[in-house]
């Protein structure tokens, strides 16, 4: 029973990371109709920047801040320089370009920082917590992870709902042509959307990298599962991404806990195909409009 | 890539259906008139076979002259050509994206290794069995994913590429786990004792590659190929015109999976073992890069892309190492190059190399394979 | 918004040519919309009416000519900049953002006003458009056709425009609703002295409230006259306007 409880807590904690990745993907999808395959790689890159700062200054939180700022910048730059070139073109172009970004960033990281695995400091202690004499499967770092992701999601939701910028972002996502006629600077809103997604991805990277070690490919596995979470939730729904993340987190943790550690992606594949066969557009999306 | 479900739409008026049928007919141009050799018309199949035979002779002669190392490279290129050709047909002609064909290569490769290990079949039989296995896998996936479009389909193929190789660690005793399985094919007796192994690898792989190219070339000019293009250009109109969208898509998947499976066998022949590291996600991305670079939808482009894929990365990595970069860093140079190529090609030259060549030499012969390259999916 | 404007703007379109790709839709159109008037733009389908509005609002870049907003040339600017300059376009098919509430749609328009003016302006809109006040927190997608038309006009007015472009506001609406909408438009000119360019298929109704009318055919202006004169010209009416 304690094992199940531990797995559940672990799964929820892992699920938070997948939810963060999934949320950032939904953010980008809704704003620009692009699926950013490079989201994980961008987070990997900002983690390297953080590591540089941490090693140079000895301060974790300074590195943390640099990573988040870097996420904003890298998201904005990518949108402005690369993605802008394929907006309005057939969707296939954006897919290929974003995959190109993925491997380009991995190659660049390997070139600049070498492809060896590096250890990465966590924000808080990774010693297991216990209640009384019962050892729980989570750590203070896991608690911080959950709090950070929920706080970020909450802040984003509030910004979108209650601020003018949020209103402009939503209008841009729903109806860019109409938004333009109302004076919304749609181009800037697109860049902002990517910047915010970059921020969220950078946060996820900082939270998960201590356990995966840092290397150019370290975010690949996390990204694939976060991506699965977003797709399962239906790319339109932020709540769906969070739900999808938790589901995937739990499913993978139970499976790797009770079976063996190699089944994580098989579980992801099974979950993905299962959901998509029943609901080809994800669990939480409404039926797509027919275009006749 | 639309997001509407396939199938005829209830309530579409006869008017809409005839409009759609006209659209389908328009977008699929009539087959080009049969070429003539002197006063004799030459059917398409014969023409393709003729070119293939010519190429085979040229390659056979060249393989004797270029030495073992280049023969080895030639064998690798041919293996990729088979897989990339299948992928470029899938993406360029039927409009579906797959970043998971590496998984189908794995199916082909592992089936071949298992048949070799346990059944000791001759190589040709192994090739057929492995291709069939990959076709079956493609069919299963194609049916499961028939209703998926755009990013959902791409996501499913991504997950397939990442997850399927993990099966080999689940069934370690049978599939060899990380070590993999051996696949040591020897030169057949009738070629004589002094025939070099790499030359035989080059011969076998090139022969299979030419065969596959001929088959694909005929397929793209057939009715199936035209229907794929209609589907790619306007799925709704195609459905209204009565095309069975789900079936066409699944067939496309089966074809590309079969090619990938055959390519997996050739890759195994070339390397001598099959293991998970051979068929990781990176392989699927390499296939995509080669297809995009060569020109989506173009079989000749598959050749360009595969050649560059094989030759340039080693060249780049060696170049980097020889200029003082450590191994840990220089191995990243080709990876960075792939990424840059994908982005630059897609943004600046969506038609890839073949598209560029066609434009440059003004080779606009209106071959159906290139007809819509400018208008859809790549511009 | 509802105080009489002494600074009503004039819109002058000078020899504008525009099109899409190889297709040349407008072949040299000149129109003057005097301040505080309604100018009706009429003509058959495909004559270029919508393209004219899209050239004005910046969605289509004119190949030739100038578009003068009270003397300043705005031709070729991006749509968001044209909107900020004070030209509000209510496109055909309404353009309600269905995923947002009625209030949010309006607030989007209000963003072009200084922060201090937004709340009072919103209250004014709710006073003038009672229907929207009632439904302010509903998703805009739940509104009927007539209500949506009201919403988009109100939203355009929220931006405090100097020129209002309306593309087929009566399209798809029941006759009674059409007359309500047209009355509203007339009121905007009479009370708020807004300069309005009204594209309409329903030529009879449009001419009833307009000051001047121009008739487009195949991308050129074939007639330009006071509305009453146009309505009285039987030959012209039958030839180009179908009644």
- The count of helical stretches of chain A stands at 11
Secondary structural class of chain A: mainly alpha
- Which superfamily, in CATH terms, is the homologous superfamily of chain C? P-loop containing nucleotide triphosphate hydrolases
Written as H for each helix and E for each strand, in order along the chain, the element string of chain C is EEEHEEHEHHHHEHEHEEHH
Question: What is the overall pLDDT average of chain C?
Answer: 87
Distance between the termini of chain A: 54 Å
- DSSP E strands of chain A, number: 2
The average pLDDT value of chain A, as a whole number, equals: 87
Shape of chain C: globular
Write structural notes for this entry:
The complex is a heterotrimer of chains A (292), B (379) and C (243). Helix content of chain A is 73%, strand content 3%. Chain A is mainly alpha-helical and 292 residues long. Chain A has a domain at 9-125 and 138-218. In chain A, strand 1 and strand 2 form a beta hairpin. In chain A, helix 2 packs parallel to helix 4 (91-113), helix 3 packs across helix 8 and helix 6 (164-174) crosses helix 8. Chain A starts with a helix and ends in a 14-residue tail after the last helix. With 379 residues, chain B is mostly helical. Chain B has a domain at 34-280: ABC transporter involved in vitamin B12 uptake, BtuC (Orthogonal Bundle), CATH 1.10.3470. Helix content of chain B is 70%, strand content 3%. Chain B has a two-stranded antiparallel sheet. In chain B, strands 3-4 form a two-stranded antiparallel sheet. In chain B, strand 1 (35-37) and strand 2 (40-42) form a beta hairpin. In chain B, helix 3 crosses helix 14. The longest helix of chain B has 28 residues, at 67-94. Chain B is globular. The model of chain B is unreliable at 1-12 and 366-379 (pLDDT under 50). By secondary structure, chain C is an alpha/beta fold. Chain C has one domain (11-241): Rossmann fold (3-Layer(aba) Sandwich). Chain C is 40% helix and 25% strand. Chain C has ten helices and ten strands. Chain C has helices spanning 49-57, 79-85, 102-110, 115-128, 130-134, 145-158, 175-192, 203-209, 227-232, 234-241; strands spanning 11-20, 23-33, 38-42, 64-69, 72-73, 87-90, 163-167, 195-199, 212-217, 220-226. In chain C, a hairpin with a 2-residue loop joins strand 1 and strand 2. In chain C, helix 3 runs parallel beside helix 6 (145-158). The chains are: A mainly alpha (292), B mainly alpha (379), C alpha/beta (243). The interface between A and B is large, with 58 and 63 residues.
